Amino acid sequence: KMSDMKQYLAVNPVTVDGTKIDVCLNIGSADKSELELEQYTDGVGLFRTEFLYMSKQKLPTEEEQFQVYKKIAEVYKERPVVIRTLDIGGDKKLDYLELPQEDNPFLGLRALRLCFEMKPIFKTQLRAILRAGYYGNIWIMFPMVGSIGDIRFAKEIIREVRSELEEEKVPYGRDVKVGIMVEIPSIALMADIAASEVDFASIGTNDLCQYLMAVDRLNPSVAKYYQSFHPAMFRLIKQIVEEFKKQGKPVSVCGEMGGNPQAVALLAGLGIRKFSMNASSVASVKKMISQLNICKAQRMSRTVLELSTAVQVENYLNSEFLE
Ligand code: PEP
Ligand code: MG
């Protein structure tokens, strides 16, 4: 089955009625194996940089990070490479970094919140990313943004780093875009204001589902409550997409739903034109896109917004996509 699917790798992801959809890669390193599908993708939509930190016994230096980011930027040339700043805490730990014990780590000092507490570590990473931006089309993305205040504070730190690089006469990307993950419902509901503060957004459906449905994404005993196809997810995503589109700011999907062909069809119906996914999903998503009609996708998404349960959504999708 997988070998049949492979023929779709080289397909240009354009719908039957001529809408181009960007298909991008989620990566965790600059290793050759991770970049194998580079030629078949429109960019990197999510570089989970925490793996750089987790694969070592100590913090990666600015230079080490710079080399990794620069390498990816050079491979992708003019295509965008979205580098997400450190997203640890929650389920991801660093052995060499003493983090407080928490009763609810997913609701705790995680990702951007942790970076605000460890400003020197955050600034080192931002320096490396901005410097790599000189060599390609790098976009910076903040994880776990919960408020407009988070956005402003993060941007303030970027300004600080930029002026330091400026002062030191170190080359860096002057037009590096700055964006956010939308994965906490509070910022999703503030999308109109968030959109005016950033250059782009990417919807992290894994955490968005976790926080919207109040279900630990890793806890098997509540797995049945983790319903990423719940109509509530699509209603919220619709609102995010509309607000960003109004202001002409790109919005993509980089959670697991972005690699699920049926979800991609629905999300394209809601207006998403860029998806980022694991390498294993690229062929099947391209297949879906190349067989999709945007009018049909829009009709499907309108139907789904009126359904009551996740099961109804799944059954509806299965019936629509019956071969
Ligand atoms: C997400 O939350 O959807 C996401 C893409 O980030 P991660 O899975 O790394 O938390
Ligand atoms: Mg996330």
UniProtKB/TrEMBL annotation:
List locations, semicolon-separated.
Cytoplasm
- Name-wise, this protein is Phosphoenolpyruvate-protein phosphotransferase
UniProt domain PEP-utilising enzyme C-terminal: residue ranges:
10-293
Locate the residues binding phosphoenolpyruvate.
Answer: 48, 84, 206-207, 217
**Which UniProt keywords are given for this protein, alphabetically ordered?**
Coiled coil, Cytoplasm, Kinase, Magnesium, Metal-binding, Phosphotransferase system, Sugar transport, Transferase, Transport
Q: Which domain of life is it from?
A: Bacteria
Species annotation: Mediterraneibacter hominis
The entry's function note states:
General (non sugar-specific) component of the phosphoenolpyruvate-dependent sugar phosphotransferase system (sugar PTS). This major carbohydrate active-transport system catalyzes the phosphorylation of incoming sugar substrates concomitantly with their translocation across the cell membrane. Enzyme I transfers the phosphoryl group from phosphoenolpyruvate (PEP) to the phosphoryl carrier protein (HPr).
Residues binding Mg(2+), per UniProt: 183, 207
Record carries keyword Kinase: yes
Q: What's the main place this protein lives?
A: cytoplasm
Recorded family membership: Belongs to the PEP-utilizing enzyme family.
Q: Which GO terms describe its biological process?
A: phosphoenolpyruvate-dependent sugar phosphotransferase system
One GO cellular component this record assigns the protein to is: cytoplasm
In Gene Ontology terms, what is one molecular function of this protein?
A: metal ion binding
Catalyzed reactions: L-histidyl-[protein] + phosphoenolpyruvate = N(pros)-phospho-L-histidyl-[protein] + pyruvate
Q: Which cofactor does it need?
A: Mg(2+)
Q: Which residues form the active site?
A: 254
Enzyme nomenclature, EC number:
2.7.3.9
